[in-house]
Amino acid sequence: MKKMNPVVHFEMPYKDKKRLSEFYEKTFGWQMQGMGEEMGNYVLANTTETENMRPKNPGTINGGFFPFDPQKPGFQQPSVVIAVDNLAESIEMVKTAGGKILGDPMDIPGVGKFVSIEDTEGNRVGMLQPVQM
Questions:
Q1: d(CA 124, CA 133)
Q2: Does the pTM exceed 0.85?
Q3: Fold adopted by 7-130
Q4: What is the distance, to the nearest Å, from the Cα of residue 26 to the centroid of all Cα atoms in its chain?
Q5: Please, which pLDDT band fits residue 42 given cuts at 50, 70 and 90?
């Protein structure tokens, strides 16, 4: 049986960081943490207890929010992030299967190597080769 790659993170755009954080904190009890300018004003969303930045409970994931950018229309939608063992190999598999690579892979300090892709149906999906995988 071929190894399955799990969904490990979700992402969504935001237009107002304060309003976003208050909504998810008040509505769902999530812990929201703004990352600042050096991390692209990303907002982490802890939806479950974590240990070493990873969810403690099997089957749960955390996520994040990025600033809405009208200059990048293909990126302004919710997406999921899938963990892979080898990002370079997975990029080639995406291309072979008819998907597209959206931009260049990037290193996220303490997290891993990341790239966005577009599947054959036009959905944006993230792929992450986590640190320590």
A1: 23
A2: no
A3: 2,3-Dihydroxybiphenyl 1,2-Dioxygenase; domain 1 (3.10.180)
A4: 22
A5: very high
